[in-house]
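Quick one: structure tokens for this chain, please?
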Amino acid sequence: MANIDRHFVTIGLAWLILGMVLGFYMGASGNNQLLDVHVAMVLPGFAVLTVYGVLYRLWPAMKQSPLAILQFWVAIIGVLALVVGAIQLELNGDIYVVAAGSALAILAAGLMAWLFWTLAAD
């Protein structure tokens, strides 16, 4: 995937904007019920996805691996599941989606570590 770095950063920036809008709403309304959702948007959504994009940009050999596409989709779906799961957790206490999102996020990090360790040249 030739532009995987750009895709990661673009999606990360979208999560940043959504997280900031939610944070602004919570601050303006004084209702912090969705604080965990805000955190899921900004940390895994923006920070982690953007770091993945930067890693792919700095070590372009990682982009050539077929695992890069798998890592991309696992990371994207994992963040989405974390955010949706955080909403469910806050509103009705369900942990299943957030747990699945956490598992996917861990898998995505493991794939990124594998790609880095095996393909990132000095």
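The helical segments are 4-29, 35-58, 66-92, 96-119.
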